[in-house]
Amino acid sequence: MLYNFLYPLAQDISFLNIFKYLTFRTGGALLTSLIITFLFGGKFIRFLRTFQEEGQPIREDGPEGHLLTKKSTPTMGGLLILLAMTVSTLLWADINNLYIWVVTLITLGFGLLGFLDDYLKLSKRSSKGLPGRLKLLGQIVLSLIAAVIVVDSLPVYMSTHLAVPFFKNVLLNLGLFYIPFAMFVMVGASNAVNLTDGLDGLAIGPVLIAAGCFALISYLTGNTVFSYYLQIHHVPGAGELAVFCGAVIGAGLGFLWYNAPPAQVFMGDTGSLALGGALGTISVIVKHELVLAIIGGLFVLETVSVIIQVASFKLTGKRVFRMAPIHHHFEKLGWSEPTIVIRFWIIAMILALIGLSTLKLR
């Protein structure tokens, strides 16, 4: 919004020319969302506690320690993240950019589904919230709308194509199958982050890392010079998504202040579904869907562990892990919560470096 109102005045006030730079506006979005979370975080948590006296319902079949250590901790902290990142994005991004609105649609839409899920859990005092099929249906409808808009807006030569990491000129034309694939990426990323959100600070850390990577990827993809130099596919207008990623980083850092062990608040499905969906949508727009699977490899690992556990139990009656998702397996092995979180962050950083290496190794 600032860009749309102030940059046109740069002809008369040269200082305002700074608003044309994505790096400046990305930094502005980051700082703004960070300040919002710090200013309102404490008050917001106290507000949540007023109607969440017993906090988030804890799984009875989960790690025994959670019934003690996480009791009375409020959830729906994702609302704080969504507020901060939405306000700062609209303030610093080019509001005429279609991709900004597509990602915002998915973020707020998935966030609404998560909010309904969290609300039902609280009102019913149960770890079971919105029925899984209904939640999935909502995600499918929203991702279908977003996928159609993205395909229609991308250049024709890449609209239904899949870029392959490590190969500079490879674009696989999936045709009509690309829309279901794009939907799978959005919905899959959303639920993968949701599965990872089981320990204090565990999900938000890798989300911050992934958002930082895609801020860089969006900037490079949207820049004609850099995309040509790196031999990655240029997507006009995609650079504006760096501002959105900056807002995610700022809001995430601010939230982590309150979510660090021992957590004062949980993000809940409100935050995890929204953030995962946002990352998936951005990867589709910048044509780095497969790179997301590398950068977000920790989310993939968590999801695969659940799939393996369920499949093994149904087929053989035996469990591969002591508990799934896999972070609970390590809890059962006796690892402390901070140890698991920090080591998983390290894994996320390593995978992020591998993912970023695809930009040059082609």
Structure description:
- The protein has 362 residues and is mainly alpha-helical.
- It has one domain.
- The protein has 15 helices and two strands.
- The protein has a two-stranded antiparallel sheet.
- A hairpin with a 7-residue loop joins strand 1 and strand 2 (171-173).
- Helix 2 runs antiparallel to helix 4 (78-92), helix 7 packs antiparallel against helix 11 and helix 11 (268-285) crosses helix 12 (289-295).
- The radius of gyration is 20 Å and the shape is globular.
- The chain starts with a helix and ends in a 5-residue tail after the last helix.
Keywords:
two-stranded antiparallel ribbon; 66% helix; single chain; 362 residues; mainly alpha
Number of helices: 15
Measured by DSSP, the beta-strand proportion falls in: under 5%
Strand order of the largest sheet: 1-2
> Unreliable stretches, pLDDT < 50, 5 or more residues?
none
The number of domains? 1
Q: Please, what is the average pLDDT?
A: 92
Helical percentage: 55-70%
Oligomeric status of the shown chains?
A: single chain
Distance between the termini: 37 Å
Number of beta-strand segments: 2
Give the C-alpha Rg. Answer: 20 Å
What structural category arises from helix and sheet content?
mainly alpha
Biggest sheet details: 2 strands, antiparallel
Inertia-based shape? globular
Q: Return the string of H and E elements.
A: HHHHHHEEHHHHHHHHH
